[in-house]
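Example S7 (structure tokens).
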């Protein structure tokens, strides 16, 4: 099992959450909530209002999201879903746990003494330079007050 941090449309209550609970895609077990230890710019960009975490450490906000334990099949699905490595790149980031529900076997990865876990995160280094000038968000909600609702793939 690998640990994945999701901050956008794959979170509970967001437009693509159904993929996280579709066992035909693999297993994803909710572990808790957290935020990035380092600050990153989270922007909503492109004609489909997609949330992107730009891989510019030290700029922006501590981005909030959810932590999942996923099997290899789900990780492979997420790589394809996220257009990895072209649109997003999957990298390890340090995540500060803010709420933990994770249970499981003694061998399951746990947070360190400071409440930090390492998770795979889909962020991007391949973006148009003007995205750096977009508003930065600390948390993503497709129906947030930004007014930039995500456009579902089937509606594009």
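Recovered sequence:
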């Amino acid at each position: 099992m690998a640990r994945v941090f999701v901050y956008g449309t794959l979170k509970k209550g967001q437009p693509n959450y159904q993929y996280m609970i579709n066992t035909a895609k693999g297993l994803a077990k909710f572990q808790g909530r957290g935020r990035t230890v380092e600050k990153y710019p989270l922007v909503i960009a492109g004609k489909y209002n997609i949330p992107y975490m730009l891989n510019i450490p030290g700029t922006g906000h501590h981005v909030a999201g959810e932590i999942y334990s996923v099997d290899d099949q789900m990780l492979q699905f997420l790589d394809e879903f996220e257009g990895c490595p072209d649109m997003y790149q999957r990298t390890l980031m340090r995540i500060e746990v803010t709420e933990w529900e994770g249970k499981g076997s003694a061998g399951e990865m746990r947070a360190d003494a400071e409440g930090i876990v390492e998770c795979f995160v889909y962020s991007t280094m391949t973006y148009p330079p003007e995205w750096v000038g977009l508003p930065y968000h600390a948390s993503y909600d497709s129906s947030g007050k930004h007014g930039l609702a995500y456009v579902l793939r089937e509606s594009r």
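Notes on this example. Residues 72-81 form the longest helix (10 residues).
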